[in-house]
Amino acid sequence: MRLRLLLLALGTFAMGTDSMVIAGILGPVADDLDVSVSAAGQLVTVFALAYALLAPVLATLTAGWPRRRLLLTALAVFTAANVLSALAPSYGPLLATRVLAAAGAALYTPTANAVATTIVPPERRGRALATVLGGMTVATALGVPLGTWLGSADWRMTMWLVVALGAAAFIGLALLLRELPEPPAAAPGLRERLTPLTDRRVLGAAATTFAFFLAFNSVYIYLSTAVRPATGGDAQRLSLILLVSGVASVAGSWVGGRAVDRFGVRAVLLTGSCAAALAFTTLPWAARSMPTALGYAVVTPLAGWAVSIALPHRLASLDPANAPLLISLNSSALYLGIAAGGGAGSAAIALLGDRWFPLAATTLALAAAALAALTTRPRRNPARLTAATPATGAAATANKPS
Description:
Blueprint: H1 2-21, H2 26-33, H3 37-61, H4 67-87, H5 91-118, H6 125-151, H7 155-176, H8 190-194, H9 200-220, H10 223-226, H11 228-231, H12 235-263, H13 265-286, H14 290-318, H15 323-356, H16 358-375, H17 382-387, H18 393-398
Helix pairs in contact: 1-5, 1-6, 1-7, 2-3, 3-5, 3-15, 4-5, 4-7, 5-6, 6-7, 6-12, 9-14, 9-15, 9-16, 12-13, 12-14, 13-14, 13-16, 14-15, 15-16
């Protein structure tokens, strides 16, 4: 059982690496394909946008497929797309392969999460989900730095690394993942999947997710540009910064989960967003040396990943019975934010330059904090309001719980 969960996690590790590692090899990609760094950054944007738009559509179209076939098809598409990425002769074909890879990831990740809950006893479902989703977190700590280091010599080696990971997951699941429960007979259609957005609370929560990831990724995608004064363009130094950032991401997830339980979603969202805004503000100075750049690489992921835990928790708590559907909406908002972050970061570099563009993220992070504050305001207690009015004090007293 544990081995099958780890194989599912290997697939999410491959996809997490693929979606984020481009940020570490923007320079080599840009140099090899003769495009600007901003244009290379759009490879992340296209992947994220395709994932966000395709996930609900593909989930609807394949709702009746056996889950084993769906997982293997998704991994085959994803792996083949990365083979094409490694062989892409120019920027245009590479951009197209990113869309195909995103389609495979959009099919695989939600299905892997669902399968994880069906192959373990009910009392172990939370840990099963944590194992599979942990593949994404470990990708930031190991996959991205390793891919960046490999890509320093040839960015195509990074793509072959992702191919190897995807192929290993495919072979392992094909051999060991059998006799899965069939999908539910009445899976929700596309309209049902989008209906929760008519609830203002759900829309506000999804908008907060979008705004925060827009801010965070407008810097993260172009981090190699931001910290170039500290790294001097050296790939090993950049890999170290990404490694520290990845380890801090894992710590941020751990801290975020416990902070939400102790202090509540609102406190974590506001504290994390403001801490990220402060970090973005200091980056033009922190990026001047390796020690301060490493300090930034610790603080920002701690805040960012704590917020990333609070965001789906908030949505799931709105309607626990429909938590999987609401969390899928959170994922789409997240990837839309990543996609928009690529464009926003590129625009900020064009307007403010390589050193000062993180200041745009400061404004975006504060906007996300303001949105979180507005949409998570605690509701006033009608009984207290009534009790505060002398004319209705008796009625308030009568309505007090005994």
